[in-house]
Design a protein that fits this description.
CATH architecture of the largest domain: Alpha-Beta Barrel
Bound molecules: zinc ion
Distance between the termini: 48 Å
Low-confidence stretches: 1-14
Strand order of the largest sheet: 11-19-18-17-16-15-12
Mean pLDDT: 94
Largest sheet: 7 strands, parallel
Number of strands: 19
Helix content: 40-55%
Strand content: 5-15%
Number of domains: 3
């Protein structure tokens, strides 16, 4: 940890000013909140208390506005005191994530929306002024300091994207960590109350939900006409609904309304096509699709009616539907209503190139712009890992930013960044999680600076070699004209044996640099899993001879890796058995 702190101390040497927050383990400050502060502001106060103690060694008391606090104050949350001290500051809306922190004389004020904004103000202050970092769920940095002084403090930020869904395992399973990264979406069944899970609240309930509302099991025998007509047959399996049928509209409306009543904590409720392309071809559906420029027109026509029907009872909620596969093109002559969210999916896209300079992405960009022009609320479902094998290197470090900028520029209110949400086997998942959080909040962040900061803080002395490895990925895997989507394999054309060998050479140097630190060594070895796997699959003899199988097994066992792919098999243990067998065969020859 000493090495990490040294790096951060360089960052911190500019703290000067006439007010002293703490000195040699003492402070005359009190953290002050409203007596009726919402849960997330109470939590913000305890987080400020905790991380300040980590940095300074002193635990500040938390008092309430009515306590008549003596001495200097850290005022947390928009309350009567903030209103009095900052008369120009308006009370933010509860779910507004924008925040401000500043000083007024020797007091420091932190305020934003009551659900999360104030909490984010506290994290922002801790990051920018005191050098705190939350690189991973179990890797937090709070650089020790003996004294911290300040003069003029001011920072105001607002997120570029309103709903930030960082779909990797740790943000999903560790809400406190996720909140520190300012992700405001966490899937935790039964625990979605934003007041009890600080920093998370904006839920999207369901996916591919039409089959739940009107299922073949319940209705096909009695009402086959509710389902897709294909080649003259109403289909019970692998089908969609017949959207022009008024009973289907009635059932979907009734059932989504029931769901909204049962689960009132969500913001958006799915009314989305099933995960297949077997849309209904009956005359009536075909006529509506024809009228509105295709299948997405039929879908918007249907979903608008559902949204209209629930609007009076749920004026603050949204009905969400897909622009996905056969509904990806925007319709003509019809627009989504203002309580409809369009979830546009990038599943066909190339991850290696910007949308505007890749022949495989231009059609998506056209769709993005077309939907952006007509949809009051666009939500992007973006794919950022390799689903058939999570561990394979995806050299998309340089495209995350331009892609998210395109989403922002086309008025996306939300982004789901679907990564490895199932296991810890994904290549560089901690850095991916971190970068995505930073970029969804502010797509104009300096990505190179973020990578420099993260690698130094997370990999310590191994960081220069990790960065050389990222450069190698950039050079070899991300070439012009070499397109890669989120479904690739270990023998794909962009991977080369030279890449694997050179990568392993760099990782050997990275391991050597942290050989005296078991914690850092384990982090480096975890990232080498990808290359060990690639070597064992591509050049097995070479992999066995240089011990790739031993490192693979060690990482799998230490990290508890089970799933390697989004599909059910093969699992990590299957690969270990395979390599064991390969080794035995080599040695018995
Ligand atoms: Zn039909
Ligand atoms: Zn491409």
């Amino acid at each position: 940890m000493k090495k990490l702190s040294l790096f951060l101390l360089v960052f911190l040497c500019g703290c000067t000013g006439s007010h002293t927050l703490f000195h040699k383990g003492t402070s005359n400050y009190t953290i002050v909140i409203d007596a009726d502060a919402p849960a997330s502001e109470q939590y913000a106060a305890t987080e400020l208390q905790h991380w300040l103690r980590e940095v300074s060694g002193v635990e500040l008391p938390i008092g309430s506005l009515t306590d008549g606090v003596k001495g200097r104050r850290l005022i947390v949350g928009y309350n009567a005191l903030v209103a009095e001290m900052m008369p120009d500051a308006e009370k933010p809306a509860d779910r507004d994530d924008a925040f401000t922190w500043c000083n007024k004389g020797g007091d420091i004020l932190f305020w934003g929306g009551a659900k999360r904004g104030t909490l984010y103000a506290v994290y922002s202050f801790l990051e920018r002024e005191l050098g705190c970092r939350w690189y991973a769920k179990d890797v937090s940095i709070a650089p020790k300091q003996t004294r911290w002084r300040f003069g003029n403090l001011y920072n105001h930020e607002a997120p570029a994207i309103f709903i930030r869904d960082n779909c990797y395992l740790d943000p999903l399973n560790t809400p406190a960590f996720s909140a520190r990264l300012r992700n405001n979406f966490v899937r935790l069944p039964g625990k979605r109350d934003g007041e009890t899970i600080p920093g998370t609240a904006e839920g999207y309930l369901g996916v591919h939900s039409m089959g739940d509302y009107v299922s073949p099991k319940e209705f096909y025998a009695t009402h086959p006409e509710y389902f897709s007509l294909i080649d003259g047959q109403r289909r019970s399996d692998y089908a969609q609904l017949c959207l022009s049928n008024p009973d289907v509209l009635r059932l979907c409306t009734e059932r989504v309304r029931e769901r909204m009543r049962r689960h009132p904590d969500y913001l958006i409720y799915s009314m989305e096509q099933n995960d297949n392309q077997a849309y209904c071809t009956c005359d009536s559906c075909a006529a509506i699709a024809e009228r509105y420029g295709g299948q997405s027109g039929l879908m918007v026509w249907f979903v608008n009616q559902v949204a209209d029907a629930v609007r009076d009872e749920f004026p603050d909620k949204f009905i969400g539907t897909f622009a996905y596969q056969y509904t990806r093109h925007a319709p003509t002559g019809i627009k989504p209503h203002d309580n409809v969210v369009i979830r546009l999916c990038s599943i066909e896209c190339c991850l290696m190139h910007n949308y505007d300079d890749c022949e495989q992405n231009r059609a998506f960009l056209d769709d993005l712009k077309a939907w952006g022009a007509i949809a009051p609320h666009l939500y992007i479902w973006d794919y950022v890992t390799n689903f058939p094998l999570y561990c394979l290197p995806v050299a998309n470090w340089k495209t995350l930013q331009p892609h998210i900028r395109d989403f922002r520029d086309n008025h996306a209110i939300g982004i789901l960044e679907e990564g490895d949400y199932q296991t810890v086997s994904c290549e560089m998942r901690e850095m991916r999680t971190y970068l995505l959080a930073k970029l969804m909040w502010n797509p104009d962040e300096d990505v190179d600076a973020l990578i420099l900061d993260f690698t130094n803080g997370y990999f310590g002395a191994a960081a220069p070699y990790i960065r050389q490895y990222l450069d190698l990925e950039e050079r070899i895997l991300r070439r012009p004209g070499m397109h890669v989507n989120c479904f690739t394999n270990v023998h794909a054309e962009h991977y080369t044996d030279e890449f694997v060998r050179e990568g392993r050479r760099l990782f050997a140097e990275a391991r050597a640099a942290v050989s005296d630190d078991p914690v850092l060594l384990a982090r480096v070895e975890k990232e080498e899993l990808a290359l060990c796997f690639m070597q064992l699959e591509r050049t097995p003899q070479e992999g066995i001879e240089n011990g790739a199988d031993v490192l693979f097994r060690r990482v799998v066992e230490r990290e508890g890796i089970d799933k390697m792919t989004e599909w059910t098999a093969p699992r990590a243990k299957d690969y270990m058995e395979k390599y064991e067998k390969m080794k035995n065969e080599m040695f018995t020859k």
